[in-house]
Amino acid sequence: MSPEFQLQTIYAKLQKLVKEHEHLKKENKKLEEELVKSERSQTVLAAKEKQLQDQIAILKMTGKPLDEVGKKDLDKRINNYIKNIDKAISLLNE
Predict the structure, then answer these.
(1) Helix/strand/coil (H, E, C) string of 11-52?
(2) C-alpha torsion sign, points 68, 70, 75, 80
């Protein structure tokens, strides 16, 4: 093997490593952005959960029984919040 051939081989391998490095940098940046997005979603969900817990605590403290319409409305709202939380959790797990 001539020194020129060896040099060309080394140069080709170096070019391949540089391309792979650039690809990995882009992928890393994308993953970091996804992580930040997931963390924001988690923060929003935690705030919503806290709000719901506060509302439940207030309802329990009032001690007033809800009428049938109020119970149905409350059930719908709670089920809607649970669905939203489940969707967000599934998005975080992807």
Answers:
(1) HHHHHHHHHHHHHHHHHHHHHHHHHHHHHHHHHHHHHHHHHH
(2) positive
DSSP letter for 67, please.
P
Give the C-alpha separation, 13 to 28, whole Å. 22
Per-residue confidence at 22, pLDDT binned at 50, 70, 90?
Answer: very high
pLDDT at residue 91 is higher than 90: no
Q: What are the two backbone dihedrals, phi and then psi, of residue 91, each rounded to the nearest 5 degrees?
A: -65, -35
Contacts of 22 (CB under 8 A, 6+ apart): none
- What whole-number distance in Å separates Cα of residue 30 and Cα of residue 42? 18
> What was the pLDDT predicted at 85?
85
Gap between the Cα atoms of 30 and 37, Å rounded: 11
* pTM exceeding 0.85: no
